[in-house]
Amino acid sequence: MENKTTITKVMAYITRFNEPYTELLVCEHKDYPEAGVQVPAGTVEEGETIEEALYREVEEESGLMEFLSVTKLKKYVYDHEGENQYHERHVFHLEVQEETAEQWEYKVNSEGEDAGLVFFYYWVPVGAVPKLAANQDDCINQLFL
User: Fold this and answer.
1) In the chain, which stretches have pLDDT less than 50?
2) What three-state secondary structure class fits 121?
3) Which residues contact 65 (CB under 8 A, 6 or more apart)?
4) Which residues contact residue 24 at a Cβ distance below 8 angstroms, ignoring those fewer than 6 apart?
């Protein structure tokens, strides 16, 4: 059995209050529906702090940049069996500041592995979040502690 590598990741639970619900921002890959429903997330690059990676990934993948609050919820290791990797996940809760559309598409304009991908974003009530890909919903219950 080969050794698994550990990759440091950030994951963003972005919420807004939309009377009477708190809603979570989720997305799907426009060209890869098999990837499932996800939240903005990505890999921490060399020389980057966890927080820098969080803001970079959120901006690259969604275009959002202004937040009322940012709170670290949890750090844990996820065994990504299909990839033979461990992901050290740093999960954050970000509350949006600006008015946001009900749904939008966003094309990643970075040079990383997601360059050119198009994400379709929409809001769902936190109590009705569908099953997220790769267990990204592991910490949803932490939003209300």
Assistant:
1) 1
2) strand
3) 55, 58, 59
4) 13, 14, 15, 39, 123, 124, 125, 126, 129, 140, 143
Determine how β-strand 5-18 pairs with β-strand 67-80: unpaired
Domain hosting residue 36, numbered range: 5-144
- Taking the model in full, what pTM does it have? 0.92
Quote the CA–CA distance of 100 and 123 in Å, as a whole number: 10
Task: Say what the pLDDT of residue 1 is.
Answer: 46
Query: Which residues sit opposite 122 in a β-bridge?
Result: 26, 103
Q: Which one-letter DSSP state was computed for residue 97?
A: -
Cα-to-chain-centroid distance, residue 26: 8
The β-bridge partners of 103 are: 122
Q: Is the separation of the CB atoms in 8 and 88 below 8 Å? A: yes
Domain count, the chain: 1
Residue 79: give its domain's CATH number.
3.90.79.10
Helix H or strand E encompassing 73:
strand 67-80
